[in-house]
Design brief:
There is one protein chain. The chain is an alpha/beta fold. The chain has 9 helices and 11 strands. Strand 7, helix 4 and strand 8 form a beta-alpha-beta unit. Helix 1 packs across helix 3 and helix 7 packs parallel to helix 9. It is globular and about 55 Å long. The chain binds iron/sulfur cluster. Iron/sulfur cluster (SF4) binds next to loops.
Amino acid sequence: MMQGNIFDIKRYAIHYGPCIRTTLFLKCCLLLCRWCHNPESQQFHPVVIHQVCKLGDHEFTEERTVGYTVSAEELVQEIRKDYVFFEESGGGVTFSGGEPLCQDVFLVECLRLCRAAHIHTCVDTAGAVVVPHLEEICRYTDLFLYDIKTMNRRKFREYVGECFDEVCRNLKTIVNSGNRVIVRIPVIPGFNDDAESIYEIITYLQTFPVVQEVNLLPYHRTGADKYKRLGMTWQMGNFESLKPENLQEFREIFRTNGYQIT
Ligand code: SF4
């Protein structure tokens, strides 16, 4: 029985692909993005979070384990419960993370079972890992949400981590397999929130003419509190969360260059 590690299931999700979706968050990621709002996802194994709770005047610390092991069959059985919503809305399942491609064998099995159950499948990935089973993943995936953070190798290494070449290589494999791809760009203050960074990404994307859809994701600091609870350091300082209107200029640049902002 094929097993994998996940850390959350979100039902009725609307930001992880088209329509209403059930989103599975798989554990493990090789990157360490400074703004990551799910740092508890980065390790493959479950992690313990220390949470300060209040009961009246009394304050106490509670330990919570994040992550658990599940079989592909159990997971897909869980997803099937939402089938009626998928049918009504045109939605489906999204595998997110962490980095879902880190558990590629498990992911293939989950996708295969979803395909057999006629569930629309989406993979939300940053592509930053060597993926021996990527072609099988492509075969069972209807849509990829593909993170492009920067095309500046130095910045990538400084703010995100290694595996820049894998990001480019995996996107090429996915596009060549004929899959639909929506590129997602997290817009991060002090990192890529300038026209030059956006044009660098556009120049790169123009090498894949079939990629026409782009999502711009505004930076937010909702994960900042988790860092302390995990004994980690939040490295984004006091940068405030961005609002959708802060991205207007970048949306226009993409539109002018022929991209559909979805
Ligand atoms: S790729 Fe995603 S999960 Fe991985 S560190 Fe970056 S933001 Fe976090």
